[in-house]
Amino acid sequence: MLERLIKTISTEDTLSLGIRLGQSFQGGEVICLYGELGAGKTILAKGLGKGLGVEEEITSPTFTLIREYCAQPTGLRFIHMDLYRLVYPEEAEVIGLTDYFQDDCVCLIEWPEIIAELLPEDRLEIRIEGSGDLCRLISIVPKGKWEAHEILND
């Protein structure tokens, strides 16, 4: 397992990291995003969307659970999920969350702990530590087929 640790010292750094990651995705990716409230998950999500080519403003789906965006020019769907408000894993099954795990989608899941049993083996886990004005320590851990890939070659 090739864990990558990255330190960001500003919102712009975190956004830029998201853009770089988003540019590397081709569809079929499931990204699990862990971090406390205020850690910068939405900032990273905005960067991922921008890197994929989403032109719309990325907003947190805390109350809607799922927001879907179309990336240009690829037509990939960027699916941004926020499971913070779920209590039981069965709720995710009812709303068809796993139906989005497809080759034409890039799925970003905030608060994925609630659906640990439903997550695919092939996924990218990103953990953000820090909040407020503090710098962030971001760990990127590839799982399954991702383990063979170098994340962010530089």
Write the layout of secondary structure elements.
Elements: E1 4-8, H1 11-24, E2 30-34, H2 41-52, E3 66-70, E4 77-82, H3 89-94, E5 105-110, E6 123-129, E7 136-143
Parallel strand pairs: 2-5, 2-6, 4-5
Antiparallel strand pairs: 1-7, 3-4, 6-7
Helix pairs in contact: 1-2
How is this structure best described in words?
With 154 residues, this protein is of the alpha/beta class. It has a single domain (4-145), classed as Rossmann fold. It is 21% helix and 27% strand. It is built from three helices and seven strands. It has helices at residues 11-24, 41-52, 89-94; strands spanning 4-8, 30-34, 66-70, 77-82, 105-110, 123-129, 136-143. The chain has a seven-stranded mixed beta sheet with strand order 1-7-6-2-5-4-3, covered by helices on one side. Strand 3 and strand 4 (77-82) form a beta hairpin. Helix 1 crosses helix 2 (41-52). The longest helix has 14 residues, at 11-24. It is globular. The model has no long low-confidence stretch (mean pLDDT 90).
